[in-house]
Amino acid sequence: MDIDNSQLGLDMNAVGREMYQLITELFPICRSITGNGVRESLRILQNRIPLEIHEVSTGTKVFDWTIPKEWNIKDAFIKNSHGEKIVDFKNSNLHVLNYSVPIHKTVPLMELKEHLYSIPDFPEWIPYRTSYYKENWGFCLTHRQYQSLQEGEYEVCIDSRLEDGYLTYGEYYLGGETEREVLFSTHVCHPSLCNDNLSGIALTTLLANYLSHQKTHFSYRFVFIPGTIGSIAWLAQNEQRVSRIHHGLVVACVGDAGKPTYKRSRQGNAEIDRAVMHVLKHCGRDCEIRDFSPYGYDERQYCSPGFDLPVGSLTRTPHGCYPEYHTSADNLNLVIPESLSESFRYYLDIVEILEKNKYYLNLNSKCEPQLGKRGLYSTLGGRTDAKIAEMALLWTLNLTDGTMNLLDIAERSGMTFHQIAEAARLLKEHDLLAPCEKQEG
Ligand code: ZN
């Protein structure tokens, strides 16, 4: 791979702002696990990457699941007895229980309340609720709105359609030197919610766009799918190709100010796990590593025992662990460009490790080669940098006996992967190192 992350030529502040801008553009759209909201969102992404859009018909069996009916919505409201709209879908698409069946009738307060959802602890926030697999209707509102409801009759209207159609997902495949793949997966099913999940969509899109301009060793596959049913459908349709996936990450919740959090793959110590943990260990801030659990995002499906793919999930504050999660407060104020660009940087550093983590053989292993006469000291910059680069050269020379790859060497030496990879590049340039297959120790 030609990527040298220290010389990306990328203005990281601009990357953060661009992700934020994309989130802002996608924010108003009412998405769900099926329907026009997903299509419209994917079309917006097509302005940046050549996404292929796939449609899977209602009723299609995908392992133990069936593709549901397609849901679309135009409008919804609750009117009080004076004809005043007291809850209006046009103000927030979170006001409707996502996947609500159509309804238009007048109901007494008692009956209405059976279909209302609010959060007493956060009376100003609208909750996000869904009912995908059980037909129901409902409204979500602030607890303050809920408490202000008077006895009386209410007109409820949900102008939605739930009928045979399709589940839509987007996919972008970038070929590399090898058919072995790295998978990045993000869900696309949440309506106006930013950290979960527009931040993941924005990061995946910009990462795909960036890598499309690089020459890569691995092939890269980016999938934009509705949560759970989307990854199940994708796995069902791609079962024959899944063995090509050598590393993968589920991208979600990457825009809040919280610390980076990595959830390991089911395998636990796959190369992707080690690569992410290495990046976080050296990222210069507090971070958290969690073991795999069969709950969360689509890693649940990728890591189901019949697949057991090396797919982890790198987030900031994980789902369910911040109060704004799945509420109207997960909005454009919760995600910040600085966090988005920082997360993007972690993903790039991980890609650099996957791309460059190879085995090498020291071609001058009997005593140290004389580095000075090769100009390997003089290429170095300031004093501290020079010392670090010198140590990286010495560690790399010492440990490239073919039994350790560059990530092993970085971990054994306590240096960053980037420092070791840069040393390996220099040593290779001076014919002191050659790539090799893994040797038995
Ligand atoms: Zn969610």
Q: Determine the structural class based on helices, strands and strand pairing.
A: alpha/beta
Q: Give the DSSP E fraction (strand runs of 2 or more residues).
A: 15-25%
Number of strands: 19
Total domain count = 3
Query: Can you tell me the CATH class of the largest domain?
Result: Alpha Beta
Low-confidence sequence ranges: none
- What's the number of helices? 12
Strand order in the largest sheet = 1-10-12-11-13-16-14-15
Major sheet description: 8 strands, mixed
Helix content: 25-40%
> Any guess at the CATH architecture of the largest domain?
3-Layer(aba) Sandwich
Bound molecules: zinc ion
The general outline is: elongated
**Intertermini distance:** 27 Å
The CATH topology annotation of the largest domain reads as Aminopeptidase
Mean pLDDT: 96
Whole-number radius of gyration? 25 Å
Q: What is the CATH homology-level superfamily of the largest domain?
A: Zn peptidases
Structure description:
With 441 residues, the chain is of the alpha/beta class. The chain has 3 domains: 5-67 and 166-356, Aminopeptidase (3-Layer(aba) Sandwich); 70-163, Glucose Oxidase, domain 1 (3-Layer(bba) Sandwich); 359-436, Orthogonal Bundle (Arc Repressor Mutant, subunit A). It has helices spanning 12-26, 36-45, 109-113, 143-147, 194-211, 229-237, 271-281, 299-302, 337-356, 383-399, 406-413, 417-429; strands at 52-57, 61-62, 65-66, 70-79, 85-88, 103-108, 116-117, 139-140, 153-163, 166-174, 181-187, 219-225, 245-251, 261-263, 288-290, 311-315, 359-362, 401-405, 433-436. Helix 7 links the parallel strand 14 (261-263) and strand 15 (288-290). The longest helix is centred in the C-terminal third of the chain and has 20 residues, at 337-356. It starts with 11 loop residues before the first helix and ends in a 5-residue tail after the last strand. The structure holds zinc ion (ZN). Zinc ion is lined by residues 190, 196-197, 319, 326.
